[in-house]
Design a protein that fits this description.
The protein has 570 residues and is α/β, with parallel strands linked by helices. Helices cover 64% and strands 10% of the residues. Strand 9 and strand 10 (533-538) form a beta hairpin. The N and C termini lie far apart (93 Å).
Length: 570
């Protein structure tokens, strides 16, 4: 800014020296020529230094912005890892990706466009007012007359731009959601020939985003045009009034040149005010959307005095546990998912849980590793309330194998060893053998180095479930929870897996959740859930003797099995 303000002064001096050189006496021509060369040297030196500092200014602005974006990306991603399941249940991943990319980019650009450029503009205006208004008050005021108008237009533009940026970011989030869902379900789209429908849906969403983008650009450039018109109007006044002053001998041609050159220096920063305000408006919207996530406190987190879980006997106990996904109090049972759940499982024991869909089976599985916190009652391990221990130590002790398995786009052995990436290959092989997957992997051309496609699409449902079982078994947690984890596996393979896992789980507390009774008939105790409550409990034989819900389900499944066998024989 300092060197930019010096350039008009040196230019004015050069003009005066040139004028004196052209119209002065011969005796003074030598001195005027020397002064002209000196002014030219100062002008070139100031221009060079201005260029160097401008380069440094732009480099630092970009570097600081990129570093800020880097830190924000890490903070944002780290927060997503800590947010509770209850948050991820109601937010779309496409919206989270938009915030983590476009919104962080909006905040990054704020460093350069919203901080450094305004500082430069303020220094130019304040410094110029100090220097040039002292030289001639009238010309100084005229030179800066367009600045208040430009600032007023910038304020109006900011309000409009901020509202439009908010709408645009939301529509881009919706566009990202459509694309993410389409790519995730591309096989369904192809299977049902839904390409035309998906293209139309994407086109409609994209057109809505385009309409807002065009409106935003129109507002921006209309505002820039108005400010540019005000600038040239002020320059015309300076030229008119300054010309009269030159004719009257009040100022020299060089001094008038200084004011015109000063306005030329201000031209680009003032015209970039639209860019600055646009950057501030975008950053304010993006910052709000970004910090909506960063400021969230996870619903499930370590208490300040949380201690690591200490396991001695390996006893897991549910004591009058109730839970609602909406956090419903006990006195409002309308939305309670499970209630009055009491049972315990010890090391070496197996508890089976069965019941109709929506009865709360998977909810119990999610409460043990504290994916959610109980609404009332408590869950203890060796007498320690799991809410009083650290999440890391709890989840290291509890292995949950879910029905819906997620596999990463990586090698098979990397997916199996996800919980312990540096595990020896022997442990990986042992885990896949327990899950009855080793023979299949060995027959693959690249064996354990085979790349699993996105979400494991290159594997069948049963193979994905077996790989998920191997992933959990490899960590040898002290508490194993199988949440309908063999639903996609045939009965014969499931039987072999159960036999193989018997050795693994003989010293561990195991909970098996399934809708197929053969998967849990061997359990020491079986709980039959209905509408969130335990309606029957006991081992397989005692439940059959009760002739209740369990017996009806057993007869139904046994009948289906017999009928399918007769059909196969026929």
């Amino acid at each position: 800014a300092i060197f930019q303000l010096d350039i008009p002064r040196f230019l004015g001096q050069a003009v005066d020296h040139a004028t004196g050189l052209l119209g002065g006496a011969k005796a003074s021509q030598g001195a005027a020529e020397d002064a002209l060369w000196a002014a030219a040297g100062l002008l070139i030196g100031a221009a060079i230094l201005r260029g160097l500092f401008t380069m440094l200014h732009n480099y630092l602005g970009e570097a600081i912005g990129q570093r800020t974006a880097y830190e924000l990306r890490l903070a944002y991603f780290e927060k997503l890892q800590r947010l509770s399941f209850s948050y991820h249940d109601h937010v779309h991943s496409g919206d989270l990706m938009t915030r983590g990319m476009l919104d962080i980019e909006g905040v990054r650009r704020f460093v350069e466009h919203g901080i450094l450029r305004p500082i430069l503009l303020v220094m130019l205006v304040v410094g110029g007012a100090y220097i040039y208004m002292g030289s001639d008050l009238v010309l100084g005021l005229l030179s800066l007359s367009f600045v208040p108008f430009a600032l007023w237009r910038a304020s109006v533009f900011r309000l409009k731009s901020r509202a439009l940026w908010r709408i645009l970011q939301e529509r881009l989030s919706h566009l990202t959601r459509i694309m993410e869902e389409n790519l995730g379900g591309i096989r369904v789209v192809r299977a049902f020939a839904g390409q035309d429908f998906e293209i139309q849906k994407f086109d409609e969403s994209s057109a809505k985003a385009l309409a807002v983008a065009i409106q935003r650009v129109g507002v921006r450039y209309a505002n820039t045009s108005i400010m540019t018109y005000a600038y040239f109007l002020a320059m015309g006044l300076v030229l008119w009034v300054g010309g009269q002053k030159v004719l009257d001998g009040e100022v020299t041609v060089g001094e008038l040149t200084q004011f015109l050159a000063f306005m030329t220096v201000l031209q680009m920063p003032i015209r970039q005010t639209g860019m600055v305000i646009n950057g501030i408006a975008r950053a304010s919207v993006s910052g709000v959307r970004l910090f909506e996530i960063l400021d969230i406190e996870p619903a499930v987190q370590d208490r300040p005095d949380a201690q690591n879980l200490e396991i001695k006997d390996g006893v897991l106990r549910f004591e009058n546990v109730a839970f609602s996904y909406a956090g419903t109090p006990e006195n409002d049972p309308g939305d309670v998912t499970i209630k009055e759940i009491n049972f315990e499982v010890r090391a070496g024991q197996t508890v089976g849980i069965v019941g109709p869909p929506g009865s709360g089976k998977s909810t119990i599985a999610h409460l043990i590793p504290r994916f959610y916190d109980v609404t009332s009652g408590r869950i203890t391990i060796d007498g320690q309330d799991i809410r009083d221990v650290t999440l890391d130590s709890l989840r290291a002790a509890v292995g949950v194998v879910q029905q819906d398995t997620f596999l990463f786009t990586s090698e098979i052995d990397a997916n199996v060893a996800y919980g312990e990436p540096w595990a020896e290959q022997e442990r990986v092989v042992s885990a896949t053998e327990s899950a009855q997957l080793h023979a299949y992997i060995e027959n693959l051309p690249q064996g354990y180095d085979t790349i699993v496609g996105e979400r494991g699409v290159s594997l069948s449902g049963g193979q994905r479930q077996r790989l998920s079982i191997a992933r959990s078994v490899m960590l040898t947690p002290l508490f194993m929870v199988f949440d309908d984890s063999t639903a996609a596996i045939d009965a014969a393979t499931e039987q072999r897996i159960r036999v193989a896992l018997k050795e693994v789980t003989k010293e561990r507390a195991t909970i098996v959740i399934s809708h197929r009774l053969p998967s849990l008939m061997h359990a020491d105790e079986i709980l039959f859930l209905d509408e969130g409550s335990i309606v029957e409990r006991g081992n397989h034989d005692s439940l059959l003797a009760q002739n209740g819900r369990y017996r009806a389900l057993y007869d139904l499944q046994a009948g289906l099995t017999e009928n399918s066998g007769e059909a196969a024989d026929g």
